[in-house]
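Thread: Newbie trying to understand structure tokens

Hi all, I'm a second-year student working on a class project, and my supervisor (Dr. K.) asked me to get a predicted structure for one chain before our next meeting. I've only ever worked with sequences, so writing a 3D structure as a token string is new to me. If someone could post the tokens and maybe explain what I'm looking at, I'd be very grateful. Here's the chain:
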Amino acid sequence: MSAIRLLVLGAVRQHGRAHGYQVRNDLEFWGAHEWSNAKPGSIYHALKQLAKQEMLHAHEIAPSTVGGPPRTEYELTDKGTEEFFALLREALTTYDQKMDVLSAGVGFIVDLERAEVIELLKQRVRGLEAWRSSATDFYTPEDGPESLGHIGEIMHMWVHSADAGAEWTRGLIERIEAGAYTFAGEGEPVLGVLKDGDENPYATGVPHEGDLL
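---
Reply by user tm_fold:
Sure, no problem. This is what the structure looks like when written as tokens:
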């Protein structure tokens, strides 16, 4: 699963309708260009591909009254909305998820209802526990990695990763159960999107031909 697909669908959804540069601006505002493959070329390519796959509807809009070429605005279709939520749920439950995909999923958790997010994260914990158990069938952490030679460091890394992932996930569950954040159906969540024309202090400032489309 690619993080860029979830990120682009989610960014468009938060605006309702957005042109490509708005999506790029939002992703740079979130720092996604640092922790994922959300580079300009990847973003604009994803928008076009998602439109071809009927996940996004492309609206051709008139040129600005102050000049400049017309831009294409994108809007999620019903198919795109289904895809967004499927990717989001997968991102939150898969125990061995890539860090960029998990980060994207966490960025959109408030698009789901609180009870569902808690259950999805509990599924992730169960997956991590099962993964750890499969590793300890061959490796006893108390004996240390040296007991298996240097290959034991691989098993040690797996167990450590499972423990750290489960600890973080349980902490997030506890915070959500205690009332943290505003989820779907509870009011207006914090979206963290920029309005068209707002200055982005985290923008890379690197121009790309897709910025004008």
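A couple of things are worth pointing out once you decode it. The first helix runs from residue 3 to 15. The CA atoms of residues 17 and 91 lie 24 Å apart. Feel free to ask follow-ups in this thread.
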